[in-house]
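Aim 2, interim progress: modelling of the 6-O-phosphono-beta-D-fructofuranose-bound target.
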Amino acid sequence: MSKSRKKGTPEINPKNIKRVAILTGGGDCPGLNAVIRGFVRCCNKVYGWKVIGIKDGFDGILSEDFVEIATGDTRGLQVLGGTILGTSNRGNPMKYPVEEDGIIVTKDVTPQIVKNLNKHKIDVLVTVGGDGTMKIAEAILKMGFPVIGVPKTIDNDLGATDVTFGYNSAVACATNALDKLHTTAESHHRALVLEVMGRDCGWIALEAGIAGGADVILIPEIPFDMDAVNRHIHDRKKSGSRFCIIAVAEGAFPDGGSKVYKKKPGPDGTPGKLGGIADWVADKISFATEIETRVAVLGHLQRGGAPTTFDRVLATRFGVEAGHLIANGEIGKIVCLKGRAIKSYDIKSAIKELKVVNPDGQTVRTAEALGICMGRANKYDKKD
Ligand code: F6P
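Predicted structure of the complex, ligand included:
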C-alpha cells in the first residue's frame, strides 16, 4: 500500500486486482484514444488485468453499458481523434435528472454508480476528464470506491499538471488557422478576428497568437481596452501595414464589460456557452478604424482530428501511468506532468484551482516584447 494514501481514501490490495474500468467524461479532445490504448496495454501486458470500457462517461455506468477492451482492440488508436468510448458533458450524477411522478427532478445517483461498478466486479475505475469529471470522481471516492484520474482538456486550465493533453493539438489547429488568415488578410488589406476556445482561460489564444504572428491577442485574464486595440491597429495602418490579425479567446471581455455568451449560465449553476466576442470586437474595429473586418470562429475544429505528436506521447504516458498507479495502490490520485516527469497528486487538491494565464508572466511579456497588443490601456498610454 502506498505510504502517501490519504485518510478516508479506499484501500485496495493490488494483488487481488482482476478487472479495472476506464471512462472518458466531459468534452472530447485529441489524445483520449491514446490514453485508452496506453492504459489497456499496460494493464493487459504488464499486470494481466482485464480492462472494461464504459460508454458515454458516467451515463454508461448507470445504463450498464460495459464492454471489454483488449490489447488487440487498441491497434492504431493513438492516431485517432475523439474517443472510442464516447463521452458526455451533461448529466452530472450528483444532480442527475430523473422522472418522478411525471415530473423531472434532480437526484444524487452516485450510490447507484457505486452499486453498478460493484455488480460488474470492477476493482478500480479510471476517469479521464476535466474538472467536472474529477469532481464526480471525488464524490465516488468519498463513497468508498477506488478511483484514479487522468486530466484532459484543450483549455489547459487544470492546476495539477503543467500541460493537459489535447491542448497542444488545439494550439496547433489555432496556429494553422492564423497562418491561413494572414494570407487572405494581407491580400485584402483587412482586419481578421479569430475567436478560439479556452473557456475562462486564454492559453490557446496566447500561444497560438504568438506562434501565428497575431498583432493583437485578447484573453480573459487581461480585460481589454478597445481604444487601445483600435489605436494599435490604426498605428499599424499608418506605418504601412494595412492588415491586422486579432486572436481573441472566447472568454475575453472589455474592461468594465462582461463576457459574451451564446447561452447564458443558468441560475442553478449550469455553465453557459461562451461565444460571440469576435463579432463584438470586429464591429468596434471596423467602426473606429474603417478597416474592412471579418470574423472566423474556429469552434470544435480545435477539439477534432488526430492528436499532435506531443499529445500522443503525453496521453500514452498518462494512460500507462494510470495502470502503474493502480498496481502501486495509489488510489485517489490523478496523473500529471511536472517538468518532463509524470507524477501524481490527490484528485481533491488537483481540482482546487484553475491554472490561468499570469497577466504579468513570461509568456505575456514575450508577446508584448514582440509588439503584440494585449489590450492593456495603461501600457499603451505610457507610449504616448
Ligand atoms: O472545455 C473544453 C471546451 O472546448 C471549451 O473550450 C469550450 O468553451 C467548451 O468546451 C465547448 O463545449 P461544448 O462542446 O459543449 O460546446
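The chain has twelve helices and 15 strands. Residues 193 and 246 are 5 Å apart (CA to CA).
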